[in-house]
Amino acid sequence: MTETNMKEMFSRQTIARRVEELAEQLNADYAGREVVFVCILKGAAIFIADLVRQLKFDVRIEFMKVASYEGTASTGKIDFSLDIGSDISGKDVVIVEDIIDTGNTLSFLSNHLAAKNPASVKICVLLDNPTRRGEECLSPDYTAFVIPNQFVVGYGLDYNGKYRHLPFIATLMR
After folding, report:
1. pLDDT tens-digit profile of 121-145?
2. Fewer CB within a 10 Å sphere, N or C end of the chain?
């Protein structure tokens, strides 16, 4: 697939503006506290890097790696391959993810981290695709963009490992 098979959804400037607004909201909500941000690899790496550089409180960053997609479809199975490496007991935790779709992965991660006795667990996502999620599933606490049910790439999101490097978010025409 080439970039001609893509249609830009959010420009670099639009993303930067929205990430700045999320940082302002987080700065207000967590002023004076230490927060552990848990980046879900690989998709959220670019998003978290831009986000945390704008925060004005103490931040620790941890990483988890899970996968539930193959190509453009969810497998329905969660492949959990990397857990956080530090104690989060009594700490505020914010999970940073590239996209919430069915909500299965983030439900799994939220429950997994909640079992480690943090003070709180919140979810911050770049993209929210609520059309495939049931009403009983969790919703993110912080969302940059709500999108329709389309497969997207760029700004960390990929198709079989490609297109993460793009500075914009685009729909991938199949």
Report:
1. 999 999 999 887 766 678 899 999 9
2. C
